[in-house]
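Reply to dn_fold:

You asked what the input looked like. This is it:
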Amino acid sequence: MTTLLDSSYERRKQALLGPLLGQLHAIYAPEEMAALRIDPVDPAILSQRSGRGFVNRDILETLLGNLLECVAPGSHNALDPHCQKHELDAAIGEIADQLYAMIAQSLLAAGEGNGLEERALLATFALLWELPQLKGRARWNRFASLRDPAVWDAYLLHACRLDSQQLAQIDFTTPLDEAIRRRDLDSYRRFMKELGWEFAFGYQMQLVMSTYPGWRVLFYHDIAHALTRTGTVERNPSLERLPVPLLPRAIAELGGRYYQADLHPETRIGDANFLDHPHRGITTGQTGVVGSGCHLLPCTMGGLSEKVQQRHPLIGDYVSIGTDAGLFGPVRIGEHSVVGANTEIYGLVEVGAGCRIGSATVIGTIKSGERRPGRVCLGEGVRVGAGTIIENSSELDLVIPDRAEIPARSYVINDGFGTPRLVRE
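and this is what came back:
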């Protein structure tokens, strides 16, 4: 029986590796190459055509660690010097072997024997061609974590000769958000330089890279999501990819095991997102969408329907979702909105841009018998006070007009004509 890493594979790999390396050399600074550590796997183990049960999870963990090294050199592996791949060619070649073996084993486990080698090879290089984009996304996800005030830790306050009272007088959020919106990291560096703390930026990025889990689980998701996609690679149309079976879900499961963030691999997630304390649990579903620039505390974005349809929330850009919030069903949250802690939003609910929904609020649609309820539609800039309940059981949409303000602990229903009626305040 032939092995996976036979001479035919090696020839085809080398033909694809040359153009790829031409793209990758430009994205690594010399100091990044010096920090890069790639953990090797014995080729004799990689090359076995087992396909039994599922892929080797130990190898998968090694592969994911190596891919993390590719987007943030020095962030994951600490190896003996002789294990270091001093040349990018050798490092990417090693990762290609590992990724190819994992994809091939997944195809074998799913009973996909015909054209296995070519399909696995194309899927491998389709993902590796995305390393520049994956590296950029990982950097912006790390940068977004600077929203956390805790990046100003005791060490940095001492180094900057600052106290917490002085720090509280400075607005870091506005320049952070502006840098994300413009995708201009240097603008934030200039802001820090003007304050005289340019060195603090490097320390904070190192702190996030070394100790914050959110950007890592988002990277795991990026890899898993890439393996679910169909079509040609944008920068190399000769690479045609098809969805890989089993492996994306295994990657998502490892992300959940390590970081308690259960991100379905088919969820579409933007970049520059900050997953705050994900170890307390963040859940997304298959048909969900999360935009860019969001700040997500532990929350659930789950489904209600068992039908194969849009059944998970769609979250716009720059949305903040508080701790223990639950969004269920095809809920839509407009950009720049805030959903408070312990809030529950379910069913056919559309929240406009710039809304502020207080904590412990309930907004939802209620099905009565076979009658399908209309939507709850919050216009732009609506303010909903904490502890409010907004429910719609009418077949007509319940529309809350733009910039309406609903007092705390109100109870709002549909008056039967699509207009909100305040039952109690």
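The mean pLDDT is 93.
Hope that clears it up.
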